[in-house]
From TrEMBL:
Species this chain originates from: Naematelia encephala
Cell location: Chromosome
Presence of the UniProt keyword Zinc in the record: yes
Gene Ontology cellular-component terms listed: chromosome
Keyword Phosphoprotein: no
Domain of life: Eukaryota
Post-SET domain sequence ranges: 309-325
Domain SET intervals: 162-287
Protein name, UniProt field: SET domain-containing protein
Stretches the record annotates as Disordered: 1-25, 50-85
Coiled coil: none
Gene3D superfamilies found in the cross-reference section: SET domain
SUPFAM superfamilies, per the entry: SET domain
The entry's keywords: Chromosome, Metal-binding, Methyltransferase, S-adenosyl-L-methionine, Transferase, Zinc
Amino acid sequence: MVSRHVSGRHEADLSSGTEPVPIPLVETDRQSIEDLFRVFHNYVTDSVLPDGTPLSNSVPPYTYFNDDRQRQQQQQDSDDQPDDPYICTCIESSDSSWLCTAQDGDSCDCVAQFGNFYSAAQHETPLNLKALPPSLPLVECSPSCPCAERCSNRRTQLCVRIPIAIRLSPSGGLGAFYDPPNETSLPSGTFLSLYAGEYLTTSQARTRWSETPRDQGNYTLSLRLPEMTVHIDPRHVGNVGRFLNHSCQPNCLIEVVRWGGGPGWPRAAIFAKRQVEPGEELTFDYANASGASQAIWPREKAGESGSEGRTRCRCGAKQCRGFMPFDETL
Ligand SMILES: C[S@@+](CC[C@H](N)C(=O)[O-])C[C@H]1O[C@@H](n2cnc3c(N)ncnc32)[C@H](O)[C@@H]1O
């Protein structure tokens, strides 16, 4: 990890240079930092399988699928290693440069098929939260399309580009804060980061959870889609997403996103739910993480001093529900 001094505070880039912008861990108390590095070993910009295989190098094995017919179909597909059938042909030559027509809308194959939910062509421009598809997931253009970073419909594939610092949170432990160098607000709908970690099957997640010491908290975010269930565990391997705390009145939300219409993995992407001011802590509602559905439901286990074995919520929101969300299915 790279350390540096910035305006009197000691910082280290948690991403070790792998993100386009550094993720400073602003020195907090020694105990929090020791607690963090006791369990957190690897920063990744995108999720991996438990054996370390990057998601982008694999298709979901049948073990992640919900019922037997889907499992059999997936086993067949995985054996055949199908190509992504949605390679876009929108790219056009324009004098000396290549132009991805996702920026114009209809002439892009991916946009015609799945839509473009980003409100303009520049990468900084936000997700149009009012125009989301009625059912998950949101589908972006495929990473295999040749238009690469020029494509305006591939926002969540571009890693972290927003200044985020990790420091002590009023709700306890560490938290992620919007930390720009000036007074610029973050527009509603801005993409912040993926929620990246190890992608576990339900039985792997159950085993992990039963072996997790009580004092380590819960980091597992569950994506429950009609065809498959994935549990994202960023406790040991993950990205900046693992530092976002729960709030009953959050300023961010999670959308399930697919990269291309092929047989790929769903990703969990964190967007600003409203305008965020400099210095605000970034939070999402663990119980209803997505604005579009109840597909995501991270779990929290019996914890300190809660009634009925529930963990007390310390989000401090006016409409705080009192306890952390709890999912009994794992
Ligand atoms: C995804 S982690 C968030 C980062 C964590 N605070 C840390 O220091 O690594 C989730 C854990 O943070 C704690 N947490 C998050 N939001 C909380 C809240 N509103 N009240 C109490 N604890 C919270 C819980 O222990 C939970 O298991």
